[in-house]
């Protein structure tokens, strides 16, 4: 794959509204606005939030509200969900919420959909109640949502107002091969969570591309890979900054979740050998280093995967360092 193709790669942002040690959710939301305004200037295509619940370090539980907040504070960047966990909601309610967003911010709203609960089992029961098995209805609920958002639904007895006729672009999200089959069958763009579940990534996108059926929304397969990126002025600085991300993943593995921690000099003080191995498996699709190293690694990744778009998430403790990482990543893709 040539440098020209690297330069043509679409690049976007996934913001988990991460709360850092010593700060609050209110601080996080202010930083999200600042980041969104900067990445809009730096050529990023989208700014997405992911629905999570009962996680002290993730403040994006009310996803549609944060989307509205960012869309109001920016002017052109697309804003959306990466994703809404549809089994947690009624398709009609999501159609109304996102229909309202699309009415307020025309041609700027994306709706990414996932089937996972975005939380632990006990919290999932609290969210879904008697609808706990709604995950089995995910394929039909996606179809219902598409219907509510279409102008064809104007004669139905149940309508999404606002929402009807907005035809908001829908994406299928996944971290396994199940979602690849669905995205292909429905002819929808496919976003894979390779930033934390890379094991089935290559298999999933092959399934998606092989089985893709064109639709009114999309004529040919479109793959987005969500990736971790920590870019700094030197490889050593990036490695140091990335220890915050590694500590976060240790918390995921052990179940001992904490707010995003400051970077540390030596991770050997934090993890054991088994935890280290597990973290590096999760980090398989990550770009950590100075510009030259990340450029080389990114080119190799594109050669292997031929993805259309990367969505970057950067768990960096210091806000200015986080901004700098996104700026440098954009410069790489702009050939600067």
UniProtKB/TrEMBL annotation:
Gene Ontology molecular function: oxidoreductase activity, acting on paired donors, with incorporation or reduction of molecular oxygen
Annotated InterPro entries: Bact_Lucif_Oxidored (IPR050766), CmoO-like (IPR019949), Luciferase-like_dom (IPR011251), Luciferase-like_sf (IPR036661)
Highest taxon in the source lineage: Bacteria
Domain Luciferase-like: 22-246
Gene Ontology CC annotations of this record: cytosol
Protein name: Luciferase-like monooxygenase
Protein family membership: To bacterial alkanal monooxygenase alpha and beta chains.
């Amino acid at each position: 794959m040539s440098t020209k193709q690297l330069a043509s790669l679409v690049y976007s942002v996934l913001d988990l509204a991460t709360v850092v040690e010593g700060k609050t959710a209110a601080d996080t939301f202010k930083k999200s606005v600042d980041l969104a305004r900067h990445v809009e200037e730096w050529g990023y295509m989208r700014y997405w939030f992911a629905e999570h619940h009962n996680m002290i370090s993730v403040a994006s539980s009310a996803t549609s509200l944060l989307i509205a907040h960012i869309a109001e504070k920016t002017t052109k960047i697309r804003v959306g969900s990466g994703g809404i966990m549809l089994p947690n909601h009624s398709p009609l309610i999501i159609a109304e919420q996102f229909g309202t967003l699309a009415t307020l911010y025309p041609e700027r709203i994306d709706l990414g959909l996932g089937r996972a609960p975005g939380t632990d089992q006990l919290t999932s029961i609290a969210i879904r109640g008697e609808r706990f098995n709604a995950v089995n209805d995910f394929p039909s609920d996606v179809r219902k949502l598409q219907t509510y958002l279409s102008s064809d639904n104007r004669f139905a007895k149940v309508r999404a107002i606002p929402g009807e006729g907005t035809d908001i672009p829908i994406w299928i999200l996944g971290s396994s091969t199940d979602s690849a089959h669905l995205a292909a069958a429905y002819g929808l763009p496919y976003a894979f969570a390779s930033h934390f579940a890379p094991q089935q990534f290559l298999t999933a996108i092959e399934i998606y591309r092989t089985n893709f059926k064109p639709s009114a929304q999309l004529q040919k397969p479109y793959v987005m890979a969500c990736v971790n990126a920590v870019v700094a002025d030197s490889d050593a600085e990036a490695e140091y900054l990335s220890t915050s991300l590694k500590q976060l993943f240790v918390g995921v593995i052990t179940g001992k979740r904490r707010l995003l921690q400051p970077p540390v000099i030596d991770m050997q003080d934090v993890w054991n050998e088994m935890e280290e191995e597990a973290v590096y498996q999760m980090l398989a699709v990550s770009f950590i280093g100075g510009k030259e190293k990340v450029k080389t690694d990114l080119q190799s990744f594109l050669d292997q995967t031929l993805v259309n778009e990367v969505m970057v998430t950067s768990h960096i403790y210091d806000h200015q360092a986080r901004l700098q990482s996104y700026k440098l990543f954009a410069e790489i893709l702009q050939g600067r």
